[in-house]
Design brief:
By secondary structure, the protein is an alpha/beta fold. The protein is 32% helix and 18% strand.
Length: 418
C-alpha cells in the first residue's frame, strides 16, 4: 500500500452513521476491508477488498444477496447507489451531499452486500502487482475475502447466500459459484449455503452473444436489412455494437431510455473524508483519491481473455457430478428486452441453447409463461422455468434491469425458494 495506514488495521466494522443521511441507519450495516488471502490461499500480498453489508434488523436470520457489477473492473458502487442498493445520492454543486433511502432497495427484502472488486477498483486500493492478472485469480481473491468476512461475522455463516450481478458478472459469478461449490466439498473447509446464482443481462458466451447484435438491431428497427448485411460482412464482432449505436443513435443499454444515471455524485461521495471515516475506509489522500468508476489495470489485465466463454462452467454448476448431486446449483438468467448491447436477449437465448445435460433438457422442454405483478396482475415479463435453470425476459427493462424493474427482487427470492 502507498498509504501509510493499512486497511487491515480496522477491526470494528459497524456503520453507525453516514454523512448526508439525516435519519438513523435502518437495520445493521458493516463496512471495511478484509484480506484477499486465507487458509485456502495463505501466500499473497497484504491487500484487502472493501465490503459494505446492508442488513435487515433481523440480519442474523436473513438470506444475504451479494451483488456485483461487471466491467471487467467496474465499481459495484454503481449498483449500491444507482440501481438496487440502500441509498440514492443527491450532491448539489453548492451544497453537501444528501443521502436518501431507495424506495425499492433490495435490503428491504434481504441482506444486501457488495465487495468492491477486483483490487484497485475505487477504494479497494492496491499496488499494480497486487491486482489479479486473470479473472480466475480475481475471483479466488474474492472468494477468500468472502470467507474472511464470514469468519468476522459467523452469525450469518449458515444463512442462505444468493449471488447476483449484471454484464461481466456473467463471467465473475459462475467462477465464484464454482469456487464455493469446490470449497464446500473440501474436508474441514468452510461450508457456504449458496442457494442460487442470478445472471442479469450477462456476459457468458461472448462470441455467440455478439453474433446476435445485428439481428437484434434489425428486428427492432434500428438498422435496415442492407445495413445489417454490410455490418455482418465487414465489421468485426467486438466492435459491431458500437457501429450499431453510431448508426441508430439510441441508448444501447435501453433502446427506450436516454442514458446511464450519472456516477459523478457517487464519485464525489467516495472522496468525502466523512464518508471514508464512517465506513472504515482509508482517508482521502494523494494515492487514495478516486478518479474513475472502474480500474484501468483490471481492464488491461483481463483484456486478452475478455471474450472467453464460460458456458462450460454454467453447465458444470447445473449438472454437478450426478443427477442426485446435492451440490447442483440453481441458475437464474434475466434479460431486459430493451437491452441492445452485446448481452441482449437473442444472444442470451443462443448460449442457453448450447447447454446440454439434464437441467438444460428440462429447461428446453419448459413452456414460456407470463410473469405478473403480484398486485395488479399486469404482465411484466415472460418466464421459462426448467427447475434448476430458468430464464426471465423483462418488459420495459434494459441492461440495468434491476433499476428498470424494482419488482425483480421479489421474483428472485421466490425463484430461489424464499
Amino acid at each position: 500500500m502507498k498509504d501509510t495506514t493499512s486497511p487491515m488495521a480496522y477491526t470494528d466494522d459497524r456503520v453507525l452513521s453516514l454523512p448526508g443521511l439525516n435519519t438513523p441507519i435502518e437495520g445493521v450495516q458493516f463496512a471495511g476491508y478484509v484480506p484477499v488471502t486465507g487458509n485456502a490461499n495463505p501466500v499473497g500480498p497484504e491487500a484487502g477488498l472493501f465490503y459494505w453489508f446492508a442488513g435487515t434488523k433481523d440480519y442474523a436470520t436473513r438470506p444475504t444477496i451479494i451483488w456485483t457489477n461487471g466491467g471487467p473492473g467496474s465499481s459495484s458502487f454503481w449498483g449500491f447507489f444507482l440501481e438496487n442498493g440502500p441509498y440514492e445520492i443527491l450532491y448539489p454543486k453548492d451544497g453537501a451531499p444528501t443521502l436518501t433511502a431507495r424506495p425499492s432497495a433490495w435490503n428491504q427484502y434481504a441482506n444486501y452486500m457488495i465487495f468492491e472488486h477486483p483490487l484497485s477498483v475505487t477504494i479497494s486500493f492496491a499496488e499494480d502487482e497486487q491486482v489479479p492478472k486473470t479473472v480466475e485469480q480475481g475471483m479466488d481473491q474474492y472468494y477468500q475475502a468472502l470467507l474472511n468476512f464470514l469468519a468476522k461475522h459467523p452469525e450469518i455463516l449458515k444463512n442462505p447466500i444468493i449471488l447476483a450481478g449484471e454484464s461481466y458478472a456473467g463471467t465473475y459469478l459462475p467462477l465464484l459459484a464454482k469456487l464455493i461449490v469446490e470449497g464446500n466439498a473440501k474436508s474441514g473447509g468452510t461450508v457456504l449455503n449458496l442457494i442460487g446464482t442470478v445472471l442479469l443481462d450477462a456476459w457468458v458466451d461472448p462470441w455467440t452473444q455478439m453474433a446476435a447484435d445485428t439481428t437484434y438491431a434489425f428486428m427492432h428497427g434500428l438498422i435496415s436489412a442492407s445495413q445489417k448485411e454490410i455490418l455482418d460482412k465487414n465489421v468485426p464482432l467486438p466492435v459491431v455494437n458500437g457501429e450499431i449505436q453510431t448508426l441508430s443513435g439510441v441508448y444501447m443499454a435501453n433502446i427506450a431510455g436516454k442514458g446511464d444515471p450519472p456516477f459523478d455524485p457517487v464519485m464525489d461521495y467516495l472522496n468525502n473524508d466523512d464518508f471514508r471515516k464512517a465506513v472504515h475506509a482509508l482517508p482521502v489522500g494523494p494515492h487514495t483519491t478516486v478518479t474513475q468508476n472502474w480500474s484501468a489495470v483490471v481492464s488491461a489485465n483481463y483484456e486478452a481473455r475478455v471474450n472467453e466463454s464460460f458456458v462450460s462452467v454454467v453447465k458444470e454448476l447445473l449438472e454437478g457430478k450426478s443427477p442426485d448431486d446435492k451440490a447442483r446449483q440453481k441458475i437464474i438468467v434475466i434479460s431486459g428486452l430493451n437491452d441492445a448491447k452485446d448481452c441482449n436477449f437473442l444472444g442470451t437465448g443462443e448460449w442457453l441453447n448450447k447447454l446440454d445435460g439434464i437441467a438444460a433438457a428440462q429447461f428446453k422442454m419448459a413452456r414460456t409463461t407470463q410473469w405478473l405483478d403480484p398486485g395488479t396482475k399486469e404482465v411484466l415479463g415472460f418466464e421459462q422455468n426448467g427447475g434448476l435453470l430458468r430464464w426471465l425476459k423483462v418488459l420495459n427493462a434494459g441492461h440495468l434491469a434491476v433499476l428498470d424493474q424494482p419488482l425483480l427482487i421479489q421474483y428472485i427470492l421466490k425463484a430461489v425458494g424464499l
